[in-house]
Batch of 4 targets.
Target 1
Amino acid sequence: MRLVIIGAGFAGMYAALSAARLRDIQGVSPEELEIALVAPEPTLVVRPRLYEAKPETLTAPLLEVLKSIDVVYVQGNAETIDTKSRVVQISTAGGTRKTLSYDRLVVATGSRLFRPNIPGLAEHGFSVDSLDDAVALDRHLHSLADRPARNGRDTIVVAGGGFTGIEAATEMPARLRAILGKDTRPRVIIVERNGAIAPDMGAGPRPVIEDALRKLGVETRVGVGVSSLDEAGVTLSNGERIEAETVVWAAGIRAAPLTQQIPAERDNSGRLLVDRDLRVTSVPGVFATGDAAKAACDDAGNFALMSCQHATRMGAFAGNNAAAELLGVPTKPYHQKAYVTCLDLGEAGAVFTRGWERKVEMVGDVAKKTKQEINTVWIYPPQAERAAALASADPERVTEV
């Protein structure tokens, strides 16, 4: 039997750990149940941190962890999925192709930044969506030191006032001063189409966020969008022109395109609809998890968000349940009633909220300390030691907050 997992992000990593854990508990050998993880590199990109400086350091190796739990790593890009034949076609860096059959499949392909067809966005927009994107932005910021201090050199426009946009924007003043000198006075502007900043976080934490933006000197434009970009700046939908040599796009994400090859229903974000065990409805043998799946967290109508917090726990349940079906043991319905957010606010600290109503529990330096612990400890892979790695993936205990 073979269980194939596509993706080495948070959901894919925990799917592999959890499946291996159940296999070990059931006393089944790796020869009887092979668990294979397919990804371009055996590396976890710590995506929630890509708004920070030195993004090239924000990865964690997975190969030794996978070896310690007897998970086979298959290097390459999954290009096609044939759910009738139960075969995945993989392309390698060397240009060759190979096929991998499966008895159960876990789609953990994550999400991608949504880039609309706005004039100039593809040519002049930066992002912190992927490691390559974040590295390109970092190099561009360092290149500003070689340019004259005029025509918007010290101005950064962040398109999108959600979680990612706010973290990117509030980090920028310190990043620019580190590059251009401590006397530099950066101008950072967040552009948000909705009528308020942080539209998805609600009214609770918004005053804290707005106060932090004022302290940092970050400007906002709400109720407007970006109409076009060029090498010198942006034009907004209300006609305002902002001279800026750096524009960061942070306005929305969609499930990765590979999910479209699964013949099943999807939501507006491209996420596959799944049942409580994270099975893709109407497609036998296929599970989806993380940003690739729309899954109910509870019986109160809350659904998992496209976030690391949900992806890790969903991954653990998906891997466990895919393995459980093959091993003939009961599955565990996914549930995640606890929900917290910890939004980085740069030099102004952070804000920590609990519950779907986003009740503020910590602000400032206290919340910042928690954010740093989350970013540098909690979300990293377990040690490459078999017992510890397997123990870390109990679905009922992953991401308990």
Target 2
Amino acid sequence: MAPILSSFKDDALIVLDNLADRASGLVNPAVRLGVTGLSRAGKTVFISSLVHNLLNGGRLPVFEPIRSGRVSKVRLEPQPDDAVPRFQYEDHIAALVRDRVWPDSTRAISQLRITLDYESASGWNRMFSPGRLSIDIVDYPGEWLLDLPLLGQDFREFSESTVRRARAGTRATLSREWLALASVSGATVAADEGSARRIAESFTAYLQACKADDRSLSTLPPGRFLMPGDLEGSPALTFSPLPDLPQGRAPKGSLWAMMERRYEAYKTHVVSPFFREHFARLDRQIVLVDALQAINRGQEALSDLEQALADVLACFRPGTNSWLSSLFTRRIDRVLIAATKADHLHHESHDRLERITARLVSRAAERIGMSGAGLEVMALASVRATREATVSHDGHTLPVIVGTPIAGERINGDVFDGERKTAIFPGDLPEDPEVLFEPMNGHKVSKSTEAERAMPELNFVRFRPPPLDETRGGLKLSVPHIRLDGAMQFLLGDRLA
């Protein structure tokens, strides 16, 4: 069951926002596209590449409106929400194209509007449609999305679920200092600001250790503890779940009561406004996933990513928007789960990456009734940083990828300077996704999969963005990609029909 995410007051405000959006849409039709993903999944790169390819006539053969020549003009326009920071497209694309460095990752919410003038494929629609669609891209951290389930949990439930995770697997070592500090302080002792701050800081350090590259765990609410922004140091971020709470209610004036009050303030003043003002107004959503990183870190990271994606999907309101229903409440009727960094694999493994990602979300999608036409899984690379080649090794021909590793990357002890290209064999993903999931689900691995389990280790290297080719006239071509056009067709194609 999806959590209850809004109160009656929130629902009333959402209705007012949707009425305002609908009234504006009568003059200028628009679709609000949410772009999110967990840490380092490539949200900024996805938006920058999408916009750059639209503005610069990129190769988008699967995106039917472009392929058929029905789009006559594409332009950036002022965004509708003046209180939301603008997505700094120009800065990000300059980093990618001019400096060949990856832009800074998403740290807060931002927005960008790109408008397409087009000719409808239907003669009937051409008589009545203005032939214009604005795409309002709303970029926000995936960690904020993982906060939404907190709206359906009280402090005891939040504490129990967080502590239960913290005592299992790798987290047990990482959480030892925080749990010991919280246990020694005791839930029923008198509230003390110094103790609250020390416990909150230790809890934050535990979350940061879980998120580190060498562990890559994903289920880490509250999200603002990792991205505090202007809330850093505020009481709304100076709390922690507490282990082994006794039965009953928190004694007045206790540390428990203080933590509980601040947790509720976090939900009221941080999580609820994000849901009401941004998330509840989305029409379409893409969730970017770095599945390769989780696979490379092992079964625990993969299992944690599966849980995080289940929590993400539980936040969506599946269904189809009718003209009447969209006046009052929106439903995100199309969700794309995109496994990024497909350019780190040879194309022979792209379908395997898709199957693994589909397996990650299949159970959660069935539970919320979103399997089918409303949900798509795809492997893509927003910016293709490599090309494919083959090499001979010990009498065998191996498929490899060629690119320029980021300065400081190491391969077999060789340190790269950011200028020299190299070819690597990235390894093979298993053909059967269950090979990765059977052991952590308590099932025995069948003999038929034992050979697959002996596959080479996956070898992922961070590459620089590619240099862009130029035409004879000196015009730089658009950013290369893998299946970005397929993502655009699924998310936007029907709105440009």
Target 3
Amino acid sequence: MSRTLIWLRQSSSGLATLSVVIGAAAGLGAIVFRWLVGSFTWLFSGHADYSVAGGEAHPWLPALGPWFLLLAPALAGLLYGPLVHRFAPEARGHGVPEVMYAVAARGGEIPGKVSAVKAIASALCIGSGGSVGREGPIVQIGSALGSAFGRAMRLPRSRLRVLVACGAAGGIAATFNAPLAGPFFAMELLLRDFAAESFGAVVLASVTASVVGRAVLGDEALLNLPSFTLHHPLEYLLFVVLGALIGAIGVLFGHVLHAVELLCDRLWRGPEWLRPAVGGVAVGALLLVLPQLYGVGYPVLQNALSGEYLLGFLLILLFGKILATSLTIGVGGSGGVFAPSLFIGAMGATAFGIVVHTWLPQLTTAPGVYGLIGMGAAFAGAAHAPITAVIVLFELTGQYTIILPLMTAVVVATLVGRALSADTIYTRKLRKRGVEIEAGAAPESAQRLP
């Protein structure tokens, strides 16, 4: 064994060097993935983001009107369904549970082909209207890159797990321009500890990926919003109520997601490769009614926070997103649930803000402030990850003025989430298969995630 290889495998400086390499690879992977999502969105809808197109016709197929929405998800499913079924079944679903399983039960071993298959499948799913997010795919893409590189270097499992976390952190950091959120997501949800050496490596990967991502994607916050301020200290009591309410909605989202997945498993009797295409018709039918649910939907989220939607429509979008995301995943789609949880929180909390602002106009701030805070509360309630929720919202919005009410609501939402459910939106599937993430290992009888 060469001295260089020994140095990479055993020394702290060697781990730091590997983390920089993985961060750069994850940053490039995030760039390619975002380009794929944008390209497929143009191909399938004829718009840069169809969620704000108002049900317009595809410019290449004007005779169909909005009815092309029935065909787009089905056609995409016909393309990525066989791809996932044949080459990487791990690429199905929202990605993060599969990475958590690999870290806890397989020492961080993830097949290298998962990166390519996940990127193509998720980009096709999101671009054709699947109501899912980008973070699950990019976590799995980056993690697979880290795992493949570590296995090629024959690293011990302890370091292989760290490289998996480095890839996940780098992917999050680059795709969302969030260099702080990446490490905390990886450490809080994947490694589940904050050891100094591993944390340092993950931070280095995140910084490297952010530099690579910003060089191509720019250096702007994902959401461009006006500055918000609070009006009265008594509002903190309202934020406690908000955290409890939206945290419970985050838990509801996880339960509905799991229930719809189980229902689809029981109802489907055909070949698995065909399931996304057939199920895509149901997704398309829902998009015909609510085209605002097309894809990730960040422009719709921003419109809601800016006060462009009425109370009733916000509630329709909230429950519509829960159903659309659950259906997209349940029929075999590929995409994340982090962005949908932010969307759900924003709709519910902005509706809450409208109610309290109408009731106490002199003491309360704009409903959009409640919407911003609700984004973090929904994710905290669903994932039981308060640190990540606070950091992510701060970086996605650039709104430091909401940090204190955000921390208040997120802590309350986390407590409510844990009181209502022992499982998170990410671990529920794992526990059903006998994988105890807290224990860090899975029994020999645990089955591979579908």
Target 4
Amino acid sequence: MSLDAVLSRIDTDLDAATGRLFDLLRIPSVSTDPAYSDDVARAANWLAQALAELGFDASVRATDGHPMVVAHGGPADGRHILFYGHYDVQPVDPLALWTRDPFDPAIEQTDSGKVIRARGAADDKGQLMTFIEACRAWKAETGTLPARVTIFLEGEEESGSPSLVPFLKANAEELTAEIALICDTGLYAEGVPGIVTQLRGLLGEEITVTGPEKDLHSGLFGGIAMNPIRVLSRVLANLHDAHGHVRVPGFYDGVAEPSPTLKKQWRDLGFDAERFLGAVGLTHPAGEDDRTPLEMIWSRPTAEVNGIWGGYTGAGFKTVLPSQAHAKVSFRLVAGQDPHVLRESFRDWVIQQMPLDCHVEFASHGASPASRMDISHPAFEMARQALSAEWPGEAAFIGGGGSIPVAGYFKTVLGMDSLLAGFGRDNDQIHSPNEKYDLNSFHRGMRSWARILDGFAA
């Protein structure tokens, strides 16, 4: 059977595959810092060349920002699938907290096994290379791929993807496929893979409340002058009621309940909220008190204050009544919520709470909708069985508490669902110093994609 030969090839080629990943990890493709622009382009060229060597028709495509890589391979008349990953990485600051050079990858032995240590090891270079190496093994053993494959690699994911939607619209016909495969997520638990079928969207707002035209002496003006920190604190305290529900009018409009089947599957996962929270020094779920912990993380919208400041915050003490107070608030959204409608509703709600002598200004920080996949597509069950055959635990359809906007854009711009399967772990320290990727995840990830590719064979 060709699949057995492909899996065997992956096993014997693990050292070489790891070496190729190391070559990519050595390129400091930090997309948000202009000082690394040449390195981002170098990473794109490296990937395009690697794909061309595998027989893909690969090219680097210019954008107004960092380049995209697009490659086509496999039989022209096969089922068409799109694979997405991103080759850019987060900045490495603070560098002093790294135990080694972030762009000098190495395999390290840890208490939980061998890991690949480097910036981008898990997010997302190691993950995207699992798919490319699976394609390599298929080509080496069979001379072709089991399906028509388009690979689409982005260079701006870690800096807000400003070129993504224009690029998708300009190249919609070329990129549209039966389904998109995305490898930028993680395992549900140790040895238990998950297929993310719903992702929350994200809405960000910055609030500035202004009272007096300048900072005031609190002895002269305290009590008689309105303090904007007091006003803003009251607004933020009003965001939630005593049961954890968000109080912005219309916030829950359009929010659907998970199906009974999905709720049962989530219950069967045996999620331990105390253990989950205990890892960060907490003990008790603090969200909506009429929801299960997994519902809170995966299928319910949230409102969170991410930062608040105003007045004097330096060393010592200054008895000032500040002119302004500021806060950053983010909302994680679920399917059925319109981020633009909610932005206006939130702003109106804040404005209505402004007293005399205070006014409020807002700054937008992104607005992406949530994604919910149609798991009736046969690819989802096929992929679940393929992952279950590879990993110790049975794969599950799970939710994702975070946001991967590209999945929503694939749906709204290209009209196709995304199948999100990744092999990261919660402790991979992505976006933080000493990022790592479990070597077993890299190995099994390649084997997983090889099995899924086999499922798309005509």
